[in-house]
C-alpha cells in the first residue's frame, strides 16, 4: 500500500498564522459543541426506554402506559412491595437465589473449563489440535437448536429436568465456544518467552498454567466472568425448557409468570419486577463497563 | 481476521534434543494436550457432536418422547414444506434477518464513525450505546417494549401524532415486525464497539494523503474506510446474521408464546419450541433444526466465498 506523507504547507508569516490558528480554534469549538449536542441527543433516545422503565416502576399502574414523562408525579413503592411478595406462594427471593446460583455456577464452570481448554489450544503442540480448534470455531456458529432436542431427551431420561444440572453442565464442559475463543486469543498475545523460561527451569504445563498463565490472564477471566454472569442471568430459553417447578424458577421465568398471571392493567408491578430482574446486570455494567466494552472490541479484531 | 483454523506455534524447545528424547517429549506433550483439552473434548462429544447426530436421526422419525421413535424417512421434511405455519416462520425470520441486521449494522457504523475522534466523553458515549446490547434480549426489556408499543402506549401516541393509525403495534400483524426490528436496531452498541476498535486501527496518514490528493469525505469513506474496515464488517455481518436467526425471548414475551397476532411473530425458534416442546413432535422439530443448520451453514459458506471479492486484509501490504 502506498503511503504518501502529508506535504507541509509553505511558509506563512507568524502574524497571519496566529490569526488562522485562532480562527481554527473557534471553529473547532463550535464543531465540538455540535458534536456533543448530536451525540447526546442520540444517547437520550437510546437510554430512554431503560430510564422510562425505571421511572414507570415508581408510578401507579394506571399512570404508566402512554405516560412519556420520566419523573413520576407521585412516586410510590407499592409496585416494588407487590413484586417482592412473589408469585403463587413462591417468594421473590427464591427466584433471585435461583438466578444467582445459576449465574455463579456458570461463572465458576466457564472460568475453570474454558481457561484449561484454551491453554491446550494456545500453548500445547499436539496432533489433532488444529482440527479441534476448527471444530470449536464451528460450534461458535452452530445454532443451538440442533442439539437442544436430543439433550432434552437425555436429561429427561436421566430425571434431570427440574434440576440445575442441564443448565450448568455445558458451562463446566467448555461448551460455550465464545469464552474458549476469547481466552485463546488473549493467551496467544502473552509473550512465549515466559513459559519457555519456566520450561527451562523444569516447570511442566500444570505449573506454567497455574502460576504463569492464570495470573496474567486476569483481564480475560474478568471479562468472561462478567459475560458469563450476565448471559446466565438473562437466559430465558434454557430455564423455560428445564425448570417447570415454580420453586426453581429464575428471575426471567418469574417475570414471565408475572406477566401471565397479573391482569394486563397491573403494569406497575410488572415494571418493578422487570427492574428488579435487571438490577444485577446493570450493576455489573456500571462497575465493569470498561472490561465489557474492551472485551467486545478485542473479540472482533485480530488477536 | 480471527476466524482462521491455524494455530501457529513455534516448537517449544529452542534446541531440539536428539531422536528418542524428542519422541518421548512429543508423547508427553500430546498427553498434556489431551489432558488440558479434556473438558472441551467431553463437552464437544457429549453435548454437541453426539446430540447433532441424534437429532439428524430423529429428523427422519416420528418421536414424541413417550413411544420409541418410528422411522418415517423423508416424511417430516415433506410435511414441513407443506406446513403453512412453517413457511410463515421462514418468512417472518427471513424478513427480520434481511432488514434488522443491515439496519443495525449501518446504525452501528454511522455512530462509530461519529464517535471516532479525539473529543472528550467518548468513554461515556460508548458505554451508553453499548448498554442496550447487554439487556436487549432479556425478558425485562421485552416487557418494556410491549408497554411502549401497545395500544395508547408512548410509541403509539407519537405515531398517531404523525398520522399513523391508532390501535397500537403489538396487536397489529403489520407492525409487530417493525417493532421487533426496532428492538434489534436499538442494540447496535455491540457491533458499534467492534467497528470503533476497527476504525481506530486505520492509519491516519491514509486520510491525510487522500486529503492532499483532494479527496472529499465520500471518496475517503468509499476508498479508505470501507476497504480498511471490511474484515470487521465481515465479522459483524456474519455474527449478527447468524444471531438474528435465533431470536426467541422477545418474540415469546411479546406474543405470549403464541407467535401472534396472525403468526406475525412466529419466528423459527419459537415455532420449533412450540412443535418440539409443547406438542412434543420431536422428530418434526429435529427436522426443523437441521434445515436451519443447513441454511445457516450455506449462508456462512456464501459469506466466506464472497469475502474474497470484498474483504481486504491489509496485513500483507505493510
From TrEMBL, chain A:
Highest taxon of the source?
A: Bacteria
Q: Which UniProt keywords apply?
A: Cell membrane, Membrane, Transmembrane, Transmembrane helix, Transport
Using the UniProt record, give the first listed, main subcellular location: membrane
Q: Which GO terms describe its cellular component?
A: plasma membrane
Q: State the InterPro entries in the record.
A: MetI-like (IPR000515), MetI-like_sf (IPR035906)
Return the Polar residues bias intervals.
1-14
- Subcellular localization: Cell membrane
What membrane topology is given? Multi-pass membrane protein
Where are the annotated segments for Disordered?
A: 1-21
Q: Which GO terms describe its biological process?
A: transmembrane transport
PROSITE patterns reported in the protein's UniProt record = ABC_TM1 (PS50928)
Occurrences of domain ABC transmembrane type-1 (ranges):
96-288
Q: Please list every transmembrane segment annotated in the UniProt record, as residue ranges.
A: 33-54, 100-121, 133-153, 165-187, 208-233, 267-288
Keyword Cell membrane on entry: yes
Q: Which family does it belong to?
A: Belongs to the binding-protein-dependent transport system permease family.
Instruction: Report the protein name in the record.
Output: Sugar ABC transporter permease
What is the native source organism of this protein? Cellulomonas algicola
Q: What is the lineage of its organism?
A: Bacteria, Bacillati, Actinomycetota, Actinomycetes, Micrococcales
From TrEMBL, chain B:
Q: Spell out the coiled coil positions from the record.
A: none
Q: Which GO terms describe its biological process?
A: transmembrane transport
Its record classes its membrane topology as: Multi-pass membrane protein
The entry's localization annotation reads: Cell membrane
Stated family: Belongs to the binding-protein-dependent transport system permease family.
Q: Give the Low complexity compositional bias ranges.
A: 1-10
Instruction: Report whether Nuclease shows up as a keyword of the record.
Output: no
Which organism was this protein described from?
A: Cellulomonas algicola
Q: Region labeled Disordered — which residues?
A: 1-24
Q: Where in the sequence is the signal peptide annotated?
A: none
> May I have one GO cellular component term?
plasma membrane
Q: What protein name applies here?
A: ABC transporter permease
Sorted alphabetically, which keywords does the UniProt record give? Cell membrane, Membrane, Transmembrane, Transmembrane helix, Transport
Q: Which CDD domains match?
A: TM_PBP2
Residues that span the membrane, as ranges: 32-60, 96-115, 127-145, 179-199, 229-254, 282-304
Q: From what superkingdom does this record's organism come?
A: Bacteria
Where is the ABC transmembrane type-1 domain positioned along the sequence?
A: 90-303
Amino acid at each position: 500500500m502506498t503511503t504518501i506523507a502529508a506535504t507541509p504547507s509553505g511558509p506563512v508569516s507568524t502574524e497571519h498564522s496566529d490569526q488562522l490558528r485562532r480562527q481554527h480554534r473557534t471553529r473547532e469549538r463550535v464543531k465540538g459543541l455540535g458534536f456533543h449536542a448530536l451525540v447526546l441527543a442520540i444517547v437520550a433516545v437510546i437510554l430512554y426506554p431503560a430510564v422510562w422503565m425505571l421511572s414507570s416502576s415508581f408510578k401507579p399502574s394506571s399512570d404508566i402506559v402512554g405516560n412519556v414523562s420520566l419523573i413520576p408525579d407521585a412516586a410510590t413503592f407499592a409496585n416494588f412491595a407487590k413484586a417482592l411478595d412473589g408469585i403463587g406462594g413462591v417468594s421473590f427471593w427464591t427466584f433471585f437465589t435461583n438466578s444467582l446460583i445459576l449465574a455463579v455456577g456458570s461463572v465458576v464452570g466457564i472460568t475453570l473449563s474454558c481457561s484449561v481448554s484454551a491453554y491446550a489450544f494456545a500453548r500445547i503442540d499436539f496432533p489433532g489440535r488444529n482440527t479441534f480448534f476448527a471444530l470449536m470455531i464451528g460450534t461458535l456458529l452452530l445454532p443451538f437448536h440442533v442439539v437442544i432436542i436430543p439433550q432434552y431427551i437425555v436429561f429427561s431420561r436421566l430425571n434431570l429436568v427440574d434440576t440445575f444440572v442441564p443448565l450448568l453442565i455445558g458451562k463446566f464442559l467448555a461448551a460455550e465456544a465464545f469464552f474458549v475463543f476469547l481466552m485463546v486469543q488473549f493467551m496467544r498475545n502473552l509473550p512465549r518467552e515466559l513459559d519457555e523460561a519456566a520450561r527451562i527451569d523444569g516447570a511442566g504445563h500444570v505449573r506454567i498454567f497455574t502460576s504463569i498463565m492464570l495470573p496474567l490472564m486476569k483481564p480475560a477471566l474478568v471479562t468472561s466472568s462478567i459475560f458469563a454472569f450476565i448471559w446466565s442471568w438473562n437466559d430465558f430459553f434454557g430455564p423455560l425448557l428445564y425448570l417447570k417447578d415454580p420453586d426453581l424458577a429464575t428471575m426471567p421465568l418469574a417475570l414471565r409468570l408475572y406477566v401471565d398471571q397479573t391482569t394486563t392493567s397491573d403494569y406497575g408491578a410488572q415494571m418493578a419486577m422487570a427492574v428488579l430482574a435487571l438490577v444485577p446486570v446493570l450493576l455489573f455494567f456500571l462497575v465493569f463497563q470498561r472490561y465489557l466494552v474492551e472485551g467486545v472490541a478485542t473479540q472482533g479484531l485480530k488477536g | 481476521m480471527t476466524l482462521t483454523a491455524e494455530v501457529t506455534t513455534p516448537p517449544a524447545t529452542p534446541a531440539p534434543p536428539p531422536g528418542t528424547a524428542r519422541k518421548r517429549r512429543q508423547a508427553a506433550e500430546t498427553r498434556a494436550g489431551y489432558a488440558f483439552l479434556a473438558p472441551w473434548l467431553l463437552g464437544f462429544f457429549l453435548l454437541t457432536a453426539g446430540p447433532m447426530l441424534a437429532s439428524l436421526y430423529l429428523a427422519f422419525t416420528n418421536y414424541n418422547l413417550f413411544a420409541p421413535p418410528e422411522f418415517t424417512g423423508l416424511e417430516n421434511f415433506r410435511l414441513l414444506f407443506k406446513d403453512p405455519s412453517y413457511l410463515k416462520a421462514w418468512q417472518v425470520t427471513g424478513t427480520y434477518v434481511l432488514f434488522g441486521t443491515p439496519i443495525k449494522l449501518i446504525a452501528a457504523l454511522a455512530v462509530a464513525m461519529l464517535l471516532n475522534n479525539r473529543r472528550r466523553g467518548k468513554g461515556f458515549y460508548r458505554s451508553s450505546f453499548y448498554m442496550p446490547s447487554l439487556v436487549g434480549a432479556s425478558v425485562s426489556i421485552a416487557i418494556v417494549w410491549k408497554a411502549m408499543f401497545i395500544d395508547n402506549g408512548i410509541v403509539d401516541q407519537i405515531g398517531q401524532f404523525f398520522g399513523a393509525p391508532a390501535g397500537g403495534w403489538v396487536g397489529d400483524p403489520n407492525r409487530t415486525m417493525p417493532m421487533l426490528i426496532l428492538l434489534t436496531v436499538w442494540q447496535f452498541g455491540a457491533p458499534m464497539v467492534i467497528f470503533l476498535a476497527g476504525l481506530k486501527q486505520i492509519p491516519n496518514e491514509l486520510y491525510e494523503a487522500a486529503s492532499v490528493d483532494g479527496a472529499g469525505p465520500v471518496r475517503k469513506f468509499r476508498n479508505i474506510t470501507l476497504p480498511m474496515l471490511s474484515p470487521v464488517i465481515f465479522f459483524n455481518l456474519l455474527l449478527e446474521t447468524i444471531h438474528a436467526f435465533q431470536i426467541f425471548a422477545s418474540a415469546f414475551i411479546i406474543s405470549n408464546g403464541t407467535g401472534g397476532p396472525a403468526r406475525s411473530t412466529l419466528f423459527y425458534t419459537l415455532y420449533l419450541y412450540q412443535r418440539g416442546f409443547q406438542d412434543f413432535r420431536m422428530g418434526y422439530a429435529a427436522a426443523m433444526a437441521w434445515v436451519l443448520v443447513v441454511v445457516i451453514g450455506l449462508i456462512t459458506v456464501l459469506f466466506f466465498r464472497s469475502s474474497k471479492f470484498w474483504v481486504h486484509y491489509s496485513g500483507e501490504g505493510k
